[in-house]
Specification:
about 475 residues, mainly alpha, disordered N terminus
């Protein structure tokens, strides 16, 4: 085989030289550029090799073609090594990945680790060190690791910031813990991240500090006022504060159904306990005293007891009950995972439908509007469930369009929401008024603000009126 390759190399080289190419030392293709030529040579494909050589000649006119093309195999790209390094990083074999990276650099002098590979490995190494420090309760070491590698405190790794704050609180550094929580609230834009952080911060914050944190959260998430107000009311009530309960605006289609913080729950007609679709009469697997206690807690709306009773659950029945309970505790990511067994059909078609409805609500709670829309479209929801989901989707799309300054689309979504539900929440009505105003339609904007101001005069309606004159 090697003699055939040498003959092929000689033939190809003679063709190049016959073409009058002046070969000289100079810029040359990299190993990656030579991969195709290596392949053709190793497979004895002279026609393809000739074509590839012509392409390389045009791209690298000063390249000194070796007399024996089989030697190009020694300049191969470290593609296999690169793939192995990425697999090792993904598997958490970080020492092996670092060693493989160093060996590859030595074996391929022209190769250097790409910035993305280096970043992934450095971040993974920092995460492993942080986990070790946190498990050991070493707040100082954890802080130092985070200082050196701030990427581990990004919002997509918000658990690290929470663990750091918990370490600080355990060490008696309440002010530092509060500052860590404050940093998350000021930096992250996800409602679920911010609300979970507020719940955690409540344990170390004074009344005044809690008010300040909610003020910061409202500034960070100006479109989430009702959800944040509901959460603040719940947390303050847990402290014995008898402040009036937050009012969560209800669309006409929901008939005044109870809403969990930041969520639109199922219509009252479908609720044995707020936020949970009725599943009475549906065939279920399993059962027993444990499941009865869980269902009783859920019926009472005692989400924390329900969640405690289902900790570590593995059965589809228990996980389904847990899914609704953690959903009502504003833990949509957990709810998504817990709904999955029932959504796959393990408890029958009706429960599968309700579980997929629950997953849709959890996705919407995470502001994953389009993913929720796709799931809803693929599910045979009840009429009420579909109205509920479509209302939230139109709400979120309208707000998103307004934020993107796509005012015509915002108006269209909000008007569709009004047609579906028979009404428009006050905050959305004000938004629609400003959308018309931004389009230069002052008459329509003034009509909206006048109507809202006549219903209830507020600084917002008066500002809208002044702007539309």
């Amino acid at each position: 085989m090697r003699s055939d390759l040498r003959r092929l190399s000689g033939l190809t080289l003679s063709l190049i030289l016959a073409g009058g190419l002046a070969l000289a030392q100079g810029s040359a293709p990299t190993p990656q550029d030579l991969e195709a030529l290596n392949y053709y040579v190793s497979n004895g494909d002279s026609r393809a090799a000739d074509a590839e050589l012509r392409r390389l000649r045009a791209q690298f006119p000063d390249w000194d073609v070796p007399s024996d093309l089989t030697t190009l195999g020694q300049q191969r790209s470290p593609a296999a090594e690169i793939d192995r390094i990425y697999r090792q990083i993904a598997a958490g074999d970080l020492t092996e990945a670092r060693q493989a990276m160093d060996e590859t650099s030595r074996n391929f002098p022209g190769w250097t680790p790409p910035p993305e590979m280096e970043r992934l490995l450095v971040t993974a190494e920092a995460q492993a060190a942080f986990d070790a420090a946190a498990s050991a309760g070493n707040a100082g070491a954890a802080i130092e690791i985070a200082r050196r590698t701030p990427a581990i405190l990004r919002c997509d790794r918000v658990n690290n910031a929470w663990r750091l704050a918990e370490l600080q609180a355990a060490a008696g550094q309440k002010a530092a813990a509060l500052q860590s929580y404050r940093g998350v609230i000021a930096s992250c834009s996800g409602l679920s991240e911010v609300t979970a952080t507020l719940e955690k911060a409540e344990a170390v914050a004074s009344d005044a500090e809690l008010v300040e944190l909610f003020r910061l959260a409202n500034a960070q998430l100006p479109g989430s006022g009702p959800a944040l107000k509901a959460l603040e009311t719940r947390l303050r009530a847990g402290r014995g504060d008898t402040a009036p309960e937050a009012s969560a605006p209800a669309a006409a289609a929901t008939g005044g159904a109870k809403r969990t913080p930041g969520r639109t729950a199922v219509a009252e007609a479908d609720l044995p306990a707020a936020g949970r679709p009725r599943t009475a009469g549906v065939a279920r697997s399993g059962g027993g005293a444990g499941l009865s206690a869980v269902r009783a807690a859920a019926q009472r709306g005692d989400w924390r007891s329900c969640t405690g009773l289902t900790s570590g659950a593995t059965s589809a029945d228990m996980l389904y009950e847990r899914a609704w309970c953690v959903y009502n505790l504003d833990r949509p990511l957990e709810a998504l995972a817990a709904f999955e067994p029932a959504a796959s059909g393990r408890l029958g078609a009706q429960v599968a439908r309700d579980a997929r409805f629950g997953k849709t609500l959890a996705l919407l709670a995470l502001k994953m509007t389009e993913e929720a829309a796709r799931l809803a479209a693929a599910t045979d929801l009840t009429i009420q469930q579909r109205r509920e989901v479509e209302a939230i989707i139109l709400d979120q799309r309208g707000v998103r369009a307004y934020q993107l300054k796509e005012y015509r689309r915002a108006i269209a979504f909000l008007t569709a929401y009004e047609d579906l539900t028979g009404g428009l929440r006050r905050d959305l009505a004000i938004m629609r008024g400003y959308a018309y105003l931004n389009l230069g339609k002052r008459t329509e904007a003034k009509r909206i603000f006048t109507e809202l101001n006549n219903q209830l005069a507020t600084p917002e309606t008066r500002a809208g009126l002044n702007a539309s004159r």
